[in-house]
Amino acid sequence: MNELISKRWSPRAFSADATVSDDELRTLLEAARWAPSHGNSQPARFVVGKRGTPTFDTIFGTLAGGNKTWAFRASVLLIGCVITRDKRGDIPNVEFGLGLAMENLVLQAVDLGLIAHMMGGFDPEAARRAFDMPDDVRPLVAMAVGHQGRLEDLPEDLQAREQRERRRHPLSEIAFTGSWGQSPFG
Predict the structure, then answer these.
(1) Rounded to an integer, what distance in angstroms lies between the CA atom of residue 84 and that of residue 5?
(2) In this predicted structure, what is the pLDDT of residue 152?
(3) 8 phi and psi, to 5 degrees?
(4) pTM, two decimal places
(5) DSSP character string of 50-94
(6) Would you give the DSSP letter of residue 17?
(7) Phi-psi sector, 52: left (phi>0), alpha (psi -120 to 50), beta
(8) Rounded to whole angstroms, how far apart are CA atoms 94 and 85?
């Protein structure tokens, strides 16, 4: 397995002193742009704000309270959106397309020595209003990107979560053959 995949995780301890360069941000978004999508529809769209900009502050304002305790230190906040229609009509599987784009972005971040944390805890309707999104655009996920920070900068409860062992279901619980529940892996 590629090391980028095994090194990827979702830390919350961001460095408030570090920045993501314009070139790094462009590289992250290029990685997202090259993701596969249904019928090459490319439904992924992003609202991107660097720390210290009004866009960052607006995205931050849409975050759920728990995410606000740490995301303010990120170098970049973004909202991953999908367009739901193109010239061919309704686009199927838009969530799939955005998910692949977000994963490309995250793996590119790992390759650049950055960290990223996706968040479902944000207010999509507030984001829609704040950024005057058209009706055929749906904001689906927020993300923080930056450099690894100090564990002690996090609230105590998050420090413990940050240090816990990473776990994944074994292949025997997620891959089946013949019939459901029958795994080719022991």
Answers:
(1) 29
(2) 82
(3) -70, 130
(4) 0.92
(5) ETTSHHHHHHHHHB-HHHHHHHTT-SEEEEEEEE-EETTEEPTTH
(6) S
(7) left
(8) 9
Confidence of residue 164 (pLDDT cuts 50, 70, 90): confident
Two structure tokens written together for 94: 């838009």
Residue with tokens 């993501």: 20
| Phi, psi (rounded to 5 degrees) for 44 | -70, 135
Which residues sit opposite 50 in a β-bridge?
76
178's torsion region: left (phi>0), alpha (psi -120 to 50) or beta? Answer: left
The encoded tokens of residue 9 equal 């995780």
Distance in angstroms (rounded) separating the CA atoms of residues 22 and 186: 47
Fold of 11-150: NADH Oxidase (3.40.109)
> Could you count the other beta carbons within 10 Å of the beta carbon of residue 8?
17
Element (H, E) at 117: strand 115-119
Encode pLDDT of 20-64 as tens digits: 999 999 999 999 999 999 999 999 999 999 999 999 999 999 999
Give which of 104, 98, 147, 100 is closest to 2, Cα–Cα. 104
Contacts of 153 (CB under 8 A, 6+ apart): 13, 16, 70, 73
pLDDT at 160: 75
Say how far apart CA 61 and CA 52 lie, in whole Å. Answer: 13
Residues paired with 48 in a beta bridge: 78
Whose tokens are 């650049």? That residue is 112
